[in-house]
Design goal:
Blueprint: E1 4-10, H1 17-25, E2 32-38, H2 45-55, E3 59-63, H3 70-79, E4 85-88, E5 94-95, H4 99-110, E6 114-122, E7 128-130, H5 133-139, E8 154-157, H6 158-163, H7 176-186, E9 191-202, H8 215-233, H9 243-259, H10 267-284, H11 299-304, H12 307-317, H13 322-335
Helix pairs in contact: 7-8, 8-9, 8-10, 9-10, 10-12
Length: 336
Amino acid sequence: MPKISVIIPVYNAKDYLRRCLDSVVNQTLSDIEIICVNDCSADNSLEILNEYAKKYSNIKVIDCKVNGGESRARNIGLDNADGEYLAFVDNDDEIDLDFYEKLYNKAVQTGADIVKADVHIINYKGESVKSNLNQKIKENNFNKLFFTHYWWCAIYKKSLIKDNNIRLIEGYPLGGDVLFLNNALLNCNKLELVDDAFYHYYRREDSGDSRELTFEKLKSVLDIHEMIVDSTLNSSNFDNFSKDEINYLFVWCLEAALNRCYRCKSLEALNYSIDKAISIYNKINNFINENSNFYKICLDALKAKDKEKLKQLYLKYDTNQKMFVANLRYTHNKKD
C-alpha cells in the first residue's frame, strides 16, 4: 500500500503541467502513487502525462473520453487510489519537494485524520504571499471548522474519506472542494498542522479563482456554501463543535453570499446573492454572534427579508468595487 495517493485532475494544462508534475515526482517521500486524470484535454496535456508515466513507474494516467468536470475527475482518482492517505494537487500549482514527507511523518506521529500544511499564494502579478490560515487555526485552539479553504494543502486518511462516503459533488463547476473539506472535517477526530511545508497556489485569470466569474460559477459557489450550512446543521457530530467555530463557519458562509456577487457584474448575480444571503441567514440566525462587524449593517435587512434595502446596501458600501457598482447602476437604470 502506498503511503499517499496524490490525485491530479488535468484539463488543458500544457503551460504549467510540467511544473506541477516535477514537484510531485521528485518528492522526498518516495512511496507515493500519482493518479493523473486527464479530463478530455484539447491540448497536448495527455502527451505530457504519458511522457512522465513512461519515465516514472508510480504515475498512473487515466484518460477520460468525455469532459466531466474537475469534481468528477477527482472522484475517478478517489476510486483508483490505494494509498493510506489521500492528497490533491491542482494541475497549475506546485508543492515543496519534502511536502508529503513532512505531512506523512506528522500523521504517523500524531495519528491525525487530516494534516494541513501552509500555503504560499502567488497572485496575478506573480507576487508570493503567505497564508495566515494556520495561524488563525492555532489562535482558535485548533478548532477544525476554522479550516474553511485551501483544502489541497492537506492529506486525508483514506479510511476517513471512504468510511464516511465523502465525495466531490458533481455538476457544480465551482466550490465542490470546500464542501468536500467541510464533510471531511465534520467527521475528523484529529487535525494537525505543519508550518514548514508549503503548497504553492497560483491564481490565474482563467481559473476558478479569477477576479470575474460567470453567473453559472457564482451560482454554484453560493449554492455550495448553503450546502455547507445544511451539512453542518445535519451532522451527527454537530454538538461536538464549539460555539466559536460554528459561529465562524456560518458567518464565513454568509459572507460568501454578501461579498461574492462583485465577481459577476450583473443584476442577476446581485439578486441571486441577496436571495442566497437571506436563505442562509434564516438557517443560521440562532447560531451566530450578531455583533460580527462585517455584516452588522445588513442584519436588519436580512431579518426583514428586505431585498431592496439589501440591494441599496450593496451599491452603497461596495466602495472597493467601483467598476462593479457603476455597472450595476447602469444596468439597473437601463432596466428602469
